[in-house]
Design goal:
Elements: H1 8-29, H2 37-42, H3 58-69, H4 77-84, H5 89-94, H6 111-120, H7 123-139, H8 156-167, E1 177-190, E2 193-202, E3 208-214, H9 220-229, E4 237-240, H10 247-256, E5 260-265, H11 270-279, E6 291-298, E7 301-311, E8 322-332, E9 339-347, H12 356-380, H13 393-410, H14 416-422, H15 426-432
Parallel strand pairs: 1-4, 4-5
Antiparallel strand pairs: 1-2, 2-3, 5-9, 6-7, 7-8, 8-9
Helix pairs in contact: 3-4, 3-6, 3-13, 6-13, 7-13
Length: 435
């Protein structure tokens, strides 16, 4: 009677189990929490799923989604799941994925699980976790993400940024600033109607510090104030359009949150606007010492921005220190001025903290940050084309896009689409967050 010998499949399984044992030993010696500040943040998001039937840790699902959105093409839940399905057993093990006790393999959440989780996640905690991670990187308490450069052409925006730094120097004495504005996800719907999101974006790096959802455009003002209460804006400058130019918002920023504001005055503050217009009238020669002008050329047109300022008191607006007039003239590169726009605004910044040149920069940086963020989300990530309509999924996907954009910005990448294409190897996306 012959003695039975191990079969080839049995040997393969033994080798696989030995590999898993080695991976577990590596995890014990070097846990993922010690490496990835993002995973540590995502582990704090509360799991709202019923305990019965839970198979995959919430942090594992959210981390896989966050890494997937970094890669070009991963703009839908199906694409996120497809990218995650290529994850190696070593990466799934490091993320704490569920392990099959029979085969010893680490299991990937199904596409339905990704959809269910993103449609039921605590959106407020989800935003707080991702924005909290980006804030930690800005403050230097978390490692700066690194995005691998694939050999090839240099980013066009990097060349333009270096040239613009010479032709458009940044005024001295600027304070940290953030722009507050709303955005509608045009293709998404929920049971409450359209998905309207309000966010706070830094001027310099264009990173989202916070985001919240409002039922409609009319609720943007109160939602923005609640969002600001969740942020640490002491000593920062908050810029916003005329929708947020309310006395309640001004008091909140200056008295409660100890920040500064630069607000545009229009029809909703007619008395304050008329008073500012009356103070700032007169020929340009009378305002030579309290005015600044800047010319810009690009995109087939010329633009001239002129700002004049005058002191004021809190009687005009809560916390107000100055009013300003902003005039924009634009036209073709080789022709006369064709368009003129004049707007008035108010700021809590005193003259020694912000002169005309600084106020002009805050206004230009406000719209630069907002338009750049919205443009990238719509064109590079296809946000307006998304038809996701279940639960919190539209906001959850917007949060993933904000996280990806902020990560690339903090990594020093100017062209987001170029940076996404650089992540050719699957493990490169995990390496961005130290996984």
């Amino acid at each position: 009677m012959s003695v039975s010998s191990p079969t080839a499949p049995g040997l393969d399984q033994l080798e696989r189990l030995a590999d898993f044992a080695r991976w577990e030993n590596e995890l014990a010696a070097d846990p993922i929490e010690a490496e990835s500040a993002l995973v540590k943040r995502l582990s704090q998001v509360p799991d709202q799923r019923a305990a019965r039937g839970q198979r995959h840790p919430l942090a594992t699902i959210l981390t896989l989604a966050a890494c997937a959105v970094l890669v070009v093409g991963s703009d839908s839940i199906s694409a996120i799941w497809q990218w995650a399905a290529r994850s190696s057993q070593a990466k799934l093990a490091r993320l704490g994925a569920r392990r099959d006790p029979l085969t010893g393999c680490y299991l990937l959440p199904s596409q339905r699980t990704f959809r269910r989780v993103l449609a039921t996640v605590d959106a407020t905690a989800w935003d707080a976790a991702t924005c909290g991670y980006l804030t930690e990187v800005i403050h230097g308490t978390a490692p700066v993400p690194t995005v691998r450069h694939t050999p090839g052409p240099r980013e066009r925006e990097e060349r333009r940024t270096s040239q613009r730094a010479v032709t458009h120097p940044v005024p001295a004495g600027l304070l940290p600033a953030a722009a507050v504005d709303g955005k509608e996800a045009r293709g998404a719907r929920t049971g409450e109607g359209r998905v309207h999101l309000v966010g706070a974006v830094t001027h310099d790096r264009r990173v989202v510090l916070g985001q919240c959802q409002v039922p409609a455009k009319r609720g943007e003002g109160p939602a923005a104030r609640e969002l600001l209460r969740t942020l640490d804006i002491a000593g920062m400058v908050i810029t916003a359009d005329a929708l947020h130019a309310t006395k309640t918002c001004a008091r909140l920023i200056t008295e409660e949150l100890h920040g500064h504001y630069v607000l545009i005055l229009k029809g909703n503050q007619r008395l304050a606007r008329n008073a500012a217009a009356a103070v700032l009238t007169g020929p340009d020669l009378e305002w030579a010492t309290t005015s600044a002008s800047q010319d810009d050329r690009g995109h087939g047109r010329c633009e001239r921005c002129q700002v004049r300022t005058a002191p004021c008191g809190p009687q005009l607006f809560p916390g107000a220190a100055q009013v300003f007039r902003l005039r924009r003239d634009s036209g073709p590169l080789s022709g006369p001025w064709e368009h003129k726009e004049i707007v008035f605004g108010v700021t809590s910044l005193p003259p020694h903290l912000a002169g005309p040149a600084q106020l002009a920069h805050y206004q230009r940086a406000h719209w630069g940050a907002i338009e750049a963020l919205h443009h990238i989300r719509d064109t590079t990530f296809g946000e307006d084309a998304s038809r996701v309509r279940t639960g919190t999924a539209p906001r959850a996907l917007a949060t993933l896009r904000n996280l990806a954009i902020g990560t690339f910005r903090l990594a020093g990448r100017a062209n987001i689409a170029h940076a996404r294409r650089d992540l050719l190897a699957h493990d490169d996306a995990f390496a961005v967050y130290g996984i």
